[in-house]
Design brief:
339 residues, D-Maltodextrin-Binding Protein, domain 2, 2 domains, 5-stranded mixed beta sheet, 16 helices
Length: 339
């Protein structure tokens, strides 16, 4: 039995046990939700909503499909095996530039949480982004937001994308292993992998860090940079307006719950199998991540502009296409809750 199957099974059982809704199974609305790395803390609200029974309380039967990165989750949506993606907002702009409209309808993360760290086993002397020329860089999956991030770092330091080699390393245990074995020179990481590596390698060199507003400002030139969202195709949203509203209510309720509970309480609500081999380290990583979560689920026009500006540096289609940002996200469903 695989680890992923155990996690999914655990989530289903726990959700059924603690749901505060007496709804019968046949009355629930089925939603296939693809996640670009379920074990990553940037997507914690997606799983936590399931654990707390918030989806079921809204009459939803949510099945989480776990993928190695956002690009894979996006492929599931485009291919029709997923209804909704829990992924990074930048994919909606990327796809709009390609003429395939997607729309984000609730924001979960206001800072990207992306970290560029030097492998403790690399033989190369790397102290800054300018030293990446000729290196192997690990991302969660090619074409994912971690890949967009490293392309942005290269562009802002005068380096072309083809000056590095990019390889997929996943986001959790596989990313840590790739870093420690020297398979890559630099990794684009997220929590809890960052904390795990830092504790095991106290001298870990970090050359870019967007886990705080200051770090986001230093890297992107803006303190606001929307990251993890839920998005889907415009057609699916239009045809499932009520279902989207239910998803948004479940998500914002979860975001509010995070704001009023400690890291220990949040961790206690998560499946044991997702905590890894050292829960104490997971707790530290979670404490680093909590300030990154959105308190209300709303997107801002300023944040959307920041993301487009960043993508324009590394994606020619985004730069050369007149993307209407107002079509890539909506606050309609979040605002409906306050009326």
């Amino acid at each position: 039995m695989t680890r992923k199957f155990l996690i999914v099974s655990s989530l289903i059982v726990c959700s059924a046990c603690i749901s505060d809704s007496p709804l019968e199974e046949e009355s629930l609305i089925d939603v296939q939700l693809a996640v670009g790395g379920q074990g990553l803390l940037v997507y914690l609200p997606t799983t936590l909503a399931l654990q707390l029974g918030h989806y079921r309380a809204e009459g939803l039967d949510v099945t989480i499909q776990d993928f190695s990165g956002g690009a894979k989750a996006l492929q599931a949506l485009v291919g029709g095996s997923a209804d909704v993606v829990s992924g990074y907002y930048d994919h909606t702009i990327q796809m709009a530039a390609e003429g395939r409209p997607l729309k984000a309808f609730v924001m979960m993360l206001r800072y990207p949480g992306l970290v560029a760290a030097v492998s403790p086993s690399t033989k190369k002397h790397i102290t800054s982004i300018r030293d990446l020329d000729g290196t192997i860089v690990g991302v969660t999956a090619p074409g994912s937001s971690t890949h967009f991030f490293v392309n942005h770092l290269l562009a802002t330091h005068g380096l072309a994308p083809d000056t590095i080699s990019v390889t997929g390393i996943g986001g959790t245990a596989t990313a840590v292993a790739a870093m420690e074995r020297g398979v890559i020179d630099v990794g684009i990481l997220l929590e809890p992998a960052v904390t795990e590596l830092k504790i095991r390698n106290p001298d870990l060199k970090i050359i870019a860090d967007t886990r705080t507003s200051l770090g986001v400002l230093q890297v992107f030139g803006s303190e606001i940079y929307p990251a993890a969202v839920m998005y889907s195709s415009e057609n699916w949203i239009d045809e499932n307006h009520d279902t989207v509203g239910r998803l948004v209510r479940a998500t914002t309720r979860t975001l509010e719950w995070i704001q009023t509970h400690s890291a220990k309480e949040i961790m206690a609500a998560m499946p044991t199998l997702m905590l890894g081999d050292n829960p104490d380290r997971y707790l530290i990583a979670l404490e680093h991540t909590i300030p990154m979560y959105s308190p209300d689920g709303r997107m801002s026009a300023e944040g959307a502009r920041s993301v487009k500006q960043v993508l324009s540096l590394s994606l020619p289609k985004v730069k050369d296409t007149n993307v209407t940002l107002e079509n890539t996200y909506t606050n309609e469903f979040v605002d409906d809750q306050n009326r």
